[in-house]
Hints:
The chain has helices at residues 27-42, 47-50, 170-178, 181-199; strands spanning 14-23, 56-61, 77-82, 94-106, 111-120, 140-148, 151-161. By secondary structure, the chain is α+β, with helices and mostly antiparallel strands.
Amino acid sequence: MEKDDLIPSQKVGQQSNAIKEKKFSSILEAKQFFVRASARLLEINHWQSISATEASHFQLFDDRGSEIERIAAEGDFIRIDILGTGALQGHGYDWVRIESMEYYSNEETDIDFTIFVARPSRVPGQKGGSIANFFSPCATSTFLVFRQGNILTAEVHGRNEVRNLQPDDIFGEARNLMINVGSEVGMSFIRWNLLVSGVLS
């Protein structure tokens, strides 16, 4: 299995990759830390504490728009509060939905991974409405903890990062036009780099 096969292909727009690696003295130690790192990755409500930043806050929601206090699951929504850049149609927040999630362990290949893919979404619990995110729905963010042998990586891969040009209102459109895609990708890289460092800390 190739790790690249787990990540959506890049077709349009820009991409970003935040990757941190940690090498352990033994495979057993790496396996034990993999369990801890996977838990951190899925405890989305605690991301801001492990990434040591107050600039971004994350909260998990169900499809009815209610806050939930548990590890993430496929179909959940993530509300992202990025100071100064929130989508007006998202009530000042950016939103993504976890569209797929997978846990994998194979003794023969000596590989374990936990992965989920999130995509820009509407606000949960609302009928209709446009995408409440700076990026368009073609963009994805892949969150991954991957172990092979005694090496463990935490990764976030942004793909097909294209500006959302169809917000509900003129203010949201102005916000998306004012923020350069490259600068938004850069801000995302900083945010996710802090997260992957926290997952492996």
